[in-house]
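We now fix the convention by which a protein and its fold are recorded. The integers have meaning only within a learned vocabulary of local backbone shapes. A record is reproduced here so that you can trace the correspondence yourselves:
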Amino acid sequence: MTSAHQSKVANPSNLLPVNLRVDGRNVLVTGGGKRALKEISRFIDYGAKVEAIAPVFASEIEELKISHANRLTLTKREMGSRDFERIYSNHFFLVVTTGSDAQENEKILQTAAEAKVLSASEDFDAQCDIVFGQSVKRGHLKLAISTDGISHALERALIGRLEGVLVNDIDSYVLFLNALADKLKKTAQDKAFSDEQKQGFLRELAESEDIYRAVSRGNFEEARRLTDQILSGTHEESAF
């Protein structure tokens, strides 16, 4: 095993939760079963261009190909030397292993490590960069639970619990986020403000204790008022 591959062995507790931009980027998924279906669906949902390689694909994946032909390519065969060359040449932004052959998965992940290409797997002991947890998406709102790959059952249970607890409030959160996203886009295009001013607005939004308290109380009308003040440049910072 190469030193490059060994360097990817990490303490699972050191995994950093992040939001990863995959829109328009090439993602390779190896495997054609239920795990592949989950990953392919995930990446298509977030705008990636997915290529899946496997001798056989589940019928649900075949159906996805029909509805997402522009962003999903299915290659029905085993991984070949040309595929490994494409990983080495950085054709893919991310490589995801879902197959049942542990040795083949290890070879693919090792190739990605040597090529300095991001890699992902559900397997707890996989030598990869990313271990996916369970998540739920409602517009711009995304909730995610991770156990560092230790227990997918616990992740599913916890994400279900979160959805249940927030079921009466989640629509309000999503509507507030959608409205805020629209306002941010308009502000970004507004030539009345300099780039420095716009960056200041974003920092103030991120750090506003008043907005935090309003949202915490579920007072979205107040949160929207405060947001409008900041984005219009009329908000005066507190002296405290």
The chain has two domains: 21-132, 170-232.
